[in-house]
Amino acid sequence: MTILALETSCDDTCAAVVDDDGTIRSNVISSQRVHDRFGGVVPEIASRHHLELVNIVVAQSLEEASITLEQVDLVAVTQGPGLVGALLVGLSTAKALAAARELPLAAIDHLQGHVAANFLVFDRDGGREAFEPPFLCLIASGGHTLLAHVSDHEGFQTLGRTLDDAAGEAFDKGARMLGLGYPGGPALERLAEAGDPDAFEFPTSGSRSRGGRGATRAFGRSLDFSFAGLKTSLLYKLRELTEVERRERASDLAASYQAAIVEHLMLRAEEALDLTKLGRLAVGGGVAANGELRRRLAELGASVHVPPSVLCTDNAAMIGGAARFTAALPYPDYLGLDAYATGERPR
Ligand code: KG4
Ligand code: ZN
Question: Are residues 81 and 183 in the same domain?
């Protein structure tokens, strides 16, 4: 079975062709760099660009897989969560492509897509690799920070999520305060390279969060994340420094701030590994590209699976990967499907 998958939940216009054994035949990602000068994604601009790019990206994904639309058996698409206008472009395109040939359509949850990126087969060190449940999955991106207990291919149980900013958002906001461009994660990481991670002290929420309003409860306690205090702490530190000090100590500030974000992610992941006794951890989302996080993960005793960066950041191959294990709707039952902006779809 050949799956054509689309993903347009944020600012990347993505299409991929995936086989039902998890082989990726093409994975096309068109990143809309137009948002950088605004310091973040502008939803209306993102939707308009998806509209311009989606057909080109789909055509390229088919071409790179050396197939035509006639050879597609199933269309998959991200239904939510994400920017509604952006999601609607992908959803409408997927419906049209599927309906034209009366194909079935699989509507996929974006977070399940990040989890399913681990089920995809890719080449590494000359071998073919995929990660099978059960495992713990840490998803850290610009929009989400989540610890998921993945016991099968079909879904996951949320053990913890962020109560305020996402980890990538913490990188982006910190980077902005340090005068760096958007997206801030890679820029902050580069600045941190020459810095001392112990130069400044930042709160890492090492203590177990008490689990206030909206908290997730697992194993009788909260494994939720919080990055707002860290961000405020950076703001206060910058205020205490003179302009010259801020410039001279920028790399120390970046290194210490990065270390605090990574430490918070690691503490929660280690707690969850401890509680679940799973001994296996997978990672996804844009922050998984961070070298400091990857270094810390490598030190963990658990078996750790970090897919290549192109499969960690938003992409359509992961949506095709999830579609392998999702019941598809037959034509024409999907024509009335709507996108959803927030929340996780119930299992
Ligand atoms: O998964 P993603 O591409 O898009 C979504 O947000 O869904 O993640 C983007 C986020 C941004 O916040 C970006 O700053 C962060 O991932 N990021 C990084 C790095 N590369 C991307 N954060 C830290 N270090 C990096 N190397
Ligand atoms: Zn994402």
Answer: no
